[in-house]
Amino acid sequence: MAMKRFIPDCSANRRAGGASARCGKLRGGAVGDERPEFILRQLPGGHVISHISQIGVYVTDQDAALSFYTEKLGFEVRKLQDGGDFKWIEVAPPGSPTTISLATKDFPVGTESKIGGFTDIAFETADIKALHETLSQRGVRFTVEPELQPYGKWFAAFVDQDDNEFFVFQPA
Prior knowledge:
By secondary structure, the chain is of the alpha+beta class. The chain has helices spanning about 10-15, 60-70, 130-135; strands spanning about 25, 35-40, 55-60, 75-80, 85-90, 100-105, 115-125, 140-150, 155-160, 165-170. It contains three helices and ten strands; from the N terminus they run αβββαββββαβββ.
């Protein structure tokens, strides 16, 4: 049985002989829309990934990290469980479906080299200047002050207690 390719453009999918194949489409994007929504449908023969559940940030001291993420960034604790050699800690911005696990080098996939540096994690805020002011007052160190980027978004960067760096964006 041949596998059908997923082609987001429905007309191209029909031309390829897959008239009954399901496809995704971009909804939104009109003037005034802040964020287009990509519609995912079940692919023939299987399911799709629905969202990013969790990401890891490696830290030297889980208690200090928990304090930073909850007291300085205002994140919620979603899970806090003793795991023997380490704690299993998940935090997240209020309302976010994605959590951040605060991991240590003692985790099965952990190493000292994963602590510090750019995390590849970008947050979003409605008012980057107000966020910068609030977090700065709480002792968060920004490595890049808020600035408007050529692509139209406001951008800033900050670090946690272990110099893990994060981006924050404000839509234009």
